[in-house]
Write a structure and sequence with these properties.
Blueprint (H helix, E strand, L loop, with lengths): L1 H6 L14 H29 L2 H10 L4 H23 L11 H25 L2 H8 L2 H13 L5 H17 L5 H6 L1 H25 L4 H20 L11 H23 L4 H7 L2 H13 L1
Helix pairs in contact: 2-12, 2-14, 3-12, 4-5, 4-11, 4-12, 5-6, 5-10, 5-11, 6-8, 6-10, 6-14, 7-8, 7-10, 7-13, 11-12
C-alpha cells in the first residue's frame, strides 16, 4: 500500500552470525553499506529540496501571508493529506500509545511550530542565503545533543564539522562587523532559533522513530504542530491570491511532505548527527537559488 511504502522497512534484530560462514558476514557488511548509501541519498535529497524553501516562502510573503500563516498552511496542508491517506489506506498507522502523546506534542511544538515560524521569520527579515546558513548551525546542535541524549560517538570528524559550521555561519552573517550585526539582529536571532529548533526536530524524530514508523511519526508531529500554530494565530489564514496558489502547494507537497518523508526514512537508518550534517547541502542550494532568482 502507499502507507507501507512510506513506512519503509521494519527494523529488526540481526542474528549475531557467530556460527555462520564468513561469506555471511560479507553479505551483512554489504547490506549495511547499501543501507547507509540509501540513507545518505534520502537525507541529501531532502536537504536539496529544503534549499528551495526560501524562494517559495518569499513568494507567499509577497502574496500577503505572514510567516505564522505560511507555517500554518505548510504544516496543516501536509497533515491533512497524510491523515486522508492513512484513513484511506491503513488506519493502523494512527495507533499510538497514550504515554507517547506528550513526546509527539513536544515534537510538534518545537520541531514543527516553532521551527517553521522562526525559519520563515528569518527568511522575511534577512536574505534566503543568510537564513539558510543560520539554520545550519543545526548540525552542531544535533551532534552535541545526540551525544548527550543517544550517546552517539563524537569523532574528530564531527568535531571539525561542528567548528566549520559555526565558523561558516558567523562569516555568513558578518559577525566580524558589529554594525552589520546590529542592523539585522532580529534576523540573526530568529535564524539561530530556527537552527536550534531544527536540531531538536532531529532529536525528537530519532526518539520517535525508535518506537514508530516514519509515517506515524510525521503524521503526529505535523498534527500537533498544526494545532499549536492554529492556537497561536487564533484563526485559519485566508488563501493567498490565485497566482500564489502553485507556490503554496509547492510548500506543502514538496518542501514539507516529500522532504519530511525522505528525511525521516533516512534518519531511521543513520545517526542523527550524521543526518543533520549531510542535510547541510540545503544552504548551498538556497544560496545558489537566492543569487540566481532574487
Amino acid at each position: 500500500t502507499p502507507v507501507s511504502a512510506l513506512r519503509g522497512p521494519r527494523p529488526g534484530p540481526l542474528d549475531d552470525g557467530a556460527h555462520l560462514p564468513s561469506v555471511y558476514h560479507g553479505l551483512v557488511d554489504r547490506q549495511s553499506i547499501r543501507t547507509h548509501r540509501i540513507a545518505v541519498v534520502l537525507v541529501a535529497g531532502a536537504g536539496a529540496l529544503w534549499g528551495t524553501l526560501g524562494i517559495a516562502a518569499k513568494g507567499v510573503f509577497r502574496a500577503g501571508l505572514s510567516p505564522l500563516g505560511a507555517a500554518l498552511w505548510r504544516a496543516g496542508g501536509a497533515f491533512l493529506l497524510l491523515l486522508l491517506l492513512a484513513l484511506a489506506a491503513n488506519r493502523r498507522v494512527l495507533r499510538v500509545r497514550a504515554r507517547d502523546l506528550p513526546m509527539f506534542a513536544a515534537y510538534g511544538l518545537i520541531g514543527v511550530a516553532l521551527f517553521m515560524t522562526s525559519y520563515f521569520t528569518a527568511i522575511r527579515l534577512s536574505t534566503v542565503a543568510t537564513a539558510a546558513m543560520l539554520l545550519y548551525t543545526a548540525p552542531a546542535w544535533v551532534t552535541l545533543l545526540a551525544r548527550l541524549v543517544f550517546r552517539e560517538s563524537l569523532s574528530g570528524r564531527k568535531v571539525a564539522a561542528v567548528l566549520l559550521t559555526f565558523t561558516g555561519s558567523a562569516l555568513a552573517v558578518r559577525a566580524y562587523d558589529p554594525a552589520a550585526l546590529r542592523v539585522n539582529l532580529a534576523g540573526v536571532l530568529t535564524g539561530l532559533a530556527a537552527g536550534f529548533t531544527y536540531a531538536l526536530y532531529s532529536i525528537f524524530g530519532k526518539g520517535a522513530l525508535g518506537r514508530y514508523g516514519p509515517f506515524t511519526t510525521l503524521l503526529y508531529a505535523l498534527g500537533f504542530g498544526t494545532l499549536f500554530l492554529a492556537l497561536a494565530l487564533r484563526r485559519w489564514p485566508a488563501l493567498p491570491p490565485a497566482y500564489a496558489l502553485p507556490t503554496l502547494l509547492y510548500l506543502i507537497l514538496v518542501t514539507t511532505l516529500l522532504t519530511h518523508v525522505l528525511y525521516t526514512n533516512g534518519l531511521r537508518r543513520i545517526e542523527a548527527g550524521r543526518a543533520s550534517i549531510i542535510a547541510a547541502v540545503e544552504p548551498v542550494v538556497a544560496a545558489l537559488l537566492g543569487f540566481l532568482l532574487l
